[in-house]
Design goal:
This protein is of the alpha/beta class. The structure holds 2-deoxy-2-amino glucitol-6-phosphate. 2-deoxy-2-amino glucitol-6-phosphate binds near residues 398 and 606.
């Protein structure tokens, strides 16, 4: 999960654009950065460990000549985040330069073979073997074009890659290739661009060309040519216009992407209500005919699947099995079969664990359906049918708007399925659909009326060493999500589990003043939840309730509470109840003086297993 970007411009220097574009990809990895350009047959290269702003301050990444170049921002997988391991990497001569996102699984044997042929390596990365392999291929046959040498090289690579190569051999070309890792082209009147993700080139063009696995692309000032790696057949693919404006991908005045994206949720939820009917129908038809349905995802997307399992059961009487993608192969790899349906949920559409689970299911003839935010991502290409969640770019590493969008789409699928199966009355259906339409305004109200209260809560509990997040029923999923948010950006240890489990062990942790966050949706679980609150309170816990505005009983039992509007249908409660938890994690992070957008050790898209 690194970020690559490069361009060939008709007018202007490449380096400043590469630098600015890498900044927009920083969420994909930020432990080192580098840029390389070509001018008059010379390679110019700057790179170092550290975040982009720090390296730029040291080296001035804009100060490289030439209208053609490539750049990289890294999240270390092979080799520590040191300057020597920063991309771009070169061959022995320094005339071939490569940037790469992914993992070359057979790099050790390739490296040994190349070292035995006299190649000298300087880094510990898998990427460097690509540069030397290209050099080896060109050395064996000087007639080879750069594209041919890259083609021969990638045919030897096992694993995932999105690479870009420049060389003094053909100083007016950039050669790219992709397998599993994301790669997209941009085209404009002033040039061509390649990137790991669309926001990188959005300020200069909204015309994108999606690259598929197993394709090699030759970029030149006049345009691009796509070929299939396996048989060199030429692929004709026109650009698509992307509806995102550059502003959508920058902070719009908010201090952090995460806060912008929390505040964007009323708008993004409205977008999810404009789903393409055709895809909702198609996916719910597949689910209706399914004999067994696994929902496969990681992290926040898994929590959306957990919540959805209650929605499908309660609205459509459809049993579904939410499974952590990283466990799917072990748990179900042998039993999944032609009668299985997999609904894979992934915001990025590139999460390696989720794609691995999907590949395993496909190899056993299961039907794969996809829900993602990234159209053109790998998940959209491996799914039989997919549906976009239409949340717009989510740059903050912590998933917020994409979580509530996923829940909205899943709720709509459950409603559609319920209609097909006649499981709930038309009146109930109309009631739930009307509430779904109100959700964007409801979320707006929560943000407007409760944000200040959450800020105060964060100040009050900023020194707490451990939190519990508890809920019952569908609110268990909400509790898990609240826990993940607080852990991943505020680095506060947090534990979540169904509230009914407290007395089976965890309650032994409770001491005076121990903060316990309860998700108090007014659904069928409320009565027993009140008992759970009482048992914690009796042992000295500080009760923090996320509660419906008219629930005076629970407010009276709480040390602190955050209110959400009343009248939320049970199956939709995770959407409004998640908002205070997102804000709590955000403001706790600020209280700790940390940056919510770039939490340590994490990257936005986990494209390694
Ligand atoms: C959520 O805040 C995290 N950033 C992470 O758990 C994320 O949800 C997970 O990696 C799955 O990502 P995906 O939806 O892109 O597959």
């Amino acid at each position: 999960m690194c970020g690559i970007f490069g361009c060939i411009l008709k007018e202007g220097k490449a380096a400043p654009l590469i630098h600015a574009s890498l900044k927009r990809l920083e969420y994909r990895g930020y432990d080192s950065v580098g840029v390389a350009t070509i001018q008059d047959g010379e390679i110019y290269l700057k790179k170092d460990k550290g975040k982009i702003d720090d390296v730029h301050r040291l080296l001035n990444l804009d100060d490289l000549p030439g209208n053609l170049g490539i750049g990289h921002t890294r999240w270390a997988t092979h080799g520590a985040p040191l300057k020597v391991n920063a991309h771009p990497h070169t061959d022995c001569t320094g005339n071939i330069v490569v940037v790469h996102n992914g993992i070359i699984e057979n790099f050790s044997e390739l490296k040994l073979e190349l070292e035995n042929s006299g190649h000298v390596f300087v880094s510990k990365t898998d990427t460097e073997v690509i540069a030397h392999l290209i050099e080896e291929n060109l050395g064996k046959n000087a007639e080879l074009t750069l594209a041919d040498a890259v083609l021969e090289t990638v045919k030897r690579l096992d694993g995932s890659y999105a690479i870009a190569v420049i060389s003094t051999k053909e100083p007016d070309k950039v050669i790219c290739a992709r397998n599993e890792s994301p790669l997209v082209l941009g085209v404009s009147d002033n040039g061509v661009y390649f990137a790991s993700d669309i926001p990188a080139f959005l300020p200069v063009t909204n015309k994108a060309v999606f690259i598929e696995d197993g394709e090699l692309i030759s970029l030149s000032a006049t345009g691009y040519e796509i070929k299939k790696i396996k048989d060199s057949s030429v692929v004709k693919r026109k650009p698509k216009v992307i509806a995102w404006t550059p502003e959508m991908a920058v902070k719009q005045g908010y201090p952090h992407f995460m806060l912008k994206e929390i505040h964007e949720q009323p708008a993004t939820l409205r977008n999810t209500l404009r789903m393409q009917e055709h895809y909702l129908d198609l996916i719910s038809t597949f689910l209706d005919r399914a004999t067994e349905v696994f929902m496969v995802a990681c992290g926040t997307s898994y929590h959306a699947c957990l919540a959805a399992s209650y929605m499908f059961s309660k609205l459509a009487f459809l049993p579904t099995y939410p499974v952590y993608a990283s466990e799917f192969i072990e748990q179900h790899g042998k039993s999944v079969n032609i009668d299985s349906t997999i609904l894979a949920v992934s915001q990025s559409g590139e999460t390696a664990d989720t794609l691995a689970a999907v590949t395993c299911a496909q190899q056993r003839a299961a039907t794969v359906l996809g829900l993602t935010n990234a159209i053109g991502s790998t998940l959209t290409r491996v799914s039989r049918v997919y549906i976009g969640q239409q949340s717009g770019p989510e740059i903050g590493v912590a998933a917020t708007k994409t979580f509530t969008s996923q829940l909205s789409v899943l709720a709509q699928l459950a409603l559609r399925l319920s209609k097909k199966r006649g499981k709930i009355s038309q009146d109930e259906m109309d009631y739930i659909e009307a509430r779904l339409e109100e959700l964007p305004d409801m979320v707006e109200t929560i943000i407007q009326t409760q944000e200040e209260k959450v800020k105060q809560l964060a100040k009050k509990y900023k020194d707490a060493k451990l939190f519990f997040f508890l809920g019952r029923g569908i609110s268990t999923a909400t509790a898990y999500e609240g826990r993940l948010k607080l852990m991943e950006i505020a680095y506060i240890p947090s534990i979540a589990f169904p509230a009914g489990e407290s007395k089976h062990g965890p309650i032994s942790l409770i001491e005076q003043g121990f903060p316990v966050v309860f998700i108090c949706a007014k659904d069928g679980t409320r009565k027993t939840l009140v008992s759970n609150i009482m048992e914690m309170k009796a042992r000295g816990a500080s009760i923090i309730a996320i509660v419906e505005e008219d629930d005076e009983e629970i407010k009276a039992l709480s040390d602190d509470y955050i209110e959400v509007p009343k009248g939320i249908p049970e199956v939709m409660s995770p959407i409004p109840f998640a908002i205070p938890l997102q804000l709590l994690a955000y403001y706790m992070t600020l209280e700790k003086g940390q940056n919510p957008d770039t939490p340590r050790n994490l990257a936005k898209s986990v494209t390694v297993k």
